[in-house]
Amino acid sequence: MSFSVIYRGLHACTHVVPPPKSIWLIITVRNASQYIERCLASISIQESQSTVKVAICDDASTDGTAELIQTWIESSPFFVHFVKNSDRKYKLRNLIDLLKSAPIQNDDICCFLDGDDSLIATNALQTVISKYESTGCWITYGSYRGYQNDACCCREMTQEEKTKNDYRNMQWIFSHLFTFRYFLWKSIPESYFNFNQEVMYQYTADMIMNIPLLELAKSSRIQYISTPLYKYNDISSLNDCKVNSSSQEYVDKQVRILKPVATPIYPCYDYAIIIPYRKRQANLNITYKSIKESIKQTSKRIHVILFEHSESPEAEQFCRENTIEYIYVPLSNISNLDQFNRALSFDMSVIYGLPASGYVCHDVDMFIPVNFWELLETNLKNQCVTVLQTYANRCVNNMRQEITEQLHIGLIDYTDINDIHCIHPKSPGSWGGSLYIDRNTYYAVGGHDPDIFAGYGPEDQSIAFKCTMSGNTIGFANDPPIELYHQYHTPTATTNPHLDKMTYTFEILKVKTDEFKNYMSDKQKFMMMC
After folding, report:
1. Could you list the residue range(s) of the whole structural domain that residue 72 is in?
2. What is the mean pLDDT of the segment spanning 337-357?
3. Domain match, 101 and 76 both
4. Do 229 and 317 have their domain in common?
5. Which candidate among 2, 53, 148, 168 keeps its CA 20 to 30 Å from the CA of 526?
6. Whole-structure pTM value
């Protein structure tokens, strides 16, 4: 089955990610005393909205390079992680050691910079940060100029190259300035670097390191920067092609025949909460306020993703102001994208958002208690489940209309809402609603089903059914209880013109379990390719 049509909206989407707290320069150097000061000076003049940090390794230099680095550190305003080798280890081992030992956070950006090269202009790092912020990418590459030659091997990938994701058989274009999110590095298995030939550590370190990062990110999360940001020292005698070109060519060939890296992505956050959105700003204000307060009360790393599917973008500025990851896909005449598609909100947020260990597939109209994350984690541990409906007794506290209106205009605060403000008797929420599901399980069951369900319909029941059909027990947040409060709004599910058809389709799929399992398998493969 092809799922490409329903996801075609991605190409017309807006994806905005909050800037990282830190951007790291990862530098290795040996016997570059005539160049290292220029390299470090190019870092000192950088203007960046993120904190600039440096991890640098001197590989047993004998010409005073380490002393020049130490002098710069003493007057530098940056945090610097400095390693001075007593014995030579070569570039690849030094990169690995720096990435392991420096205190880099999972969502930080890392930039490879050779000690005999330098950055161009004062905005090189800010240009990189802006590309991450405006595209949601996980990798950038390019561009550079030489001292003698301005020719640069970097270029945009062709559409065919993007489709294949076959970086080991491509022309080499992923060069300076190469940058990546740190969690990608943590996703590479250590066994990948267990080479049985020492020559593999001595040459072509950039290719050995960059290719698995590219394979993990895939083309949809890789961005080319055409503006020259990097000054490549093509006159230096330290370049691999000048030291031993035959060994460089040999390692190049060996790297290209290695098995591609296809391990699961290392989570960037403990939990992410996904908010589908269309024209409910008053609801969003209260819901996000509760999420923001809950994040302050936990030591867990929490990420918020807002997915807007509407006629025109309305929530982008709100997300920028509140450092929320924002994905916008416009309504279109493509099947199942012609009305608000809640299932698509969850799928695309999991596939293309910064990765978390688990996701709360939430709603814009429900606010959470201040201790939500501790309650969630306790329920998951007590019940030993990877899927949990995040409200007690499968019942949501539905607020009365007049109370919701008072809440929206500030007459009462959400923290004052309790049982007396709600409609009784309580009604069960949708099976699978506000579902917590860990990342591995989400992929294993093929996620939500935006190609089948659009608008408000059986999308929650569908993923819940797939979870149980795959042998996963769905827990309920009773131990201890989690109380969620649903803000009043005009009912929307009953206005979906396709609701009857989708409900009928779901009932058929529940009976034809073999066909549904084949569909799930196809969907999982598609998600892994994205």
Report:
1. 16-256
2. 92
3. yes
4. no
5. 168
6. 0.93
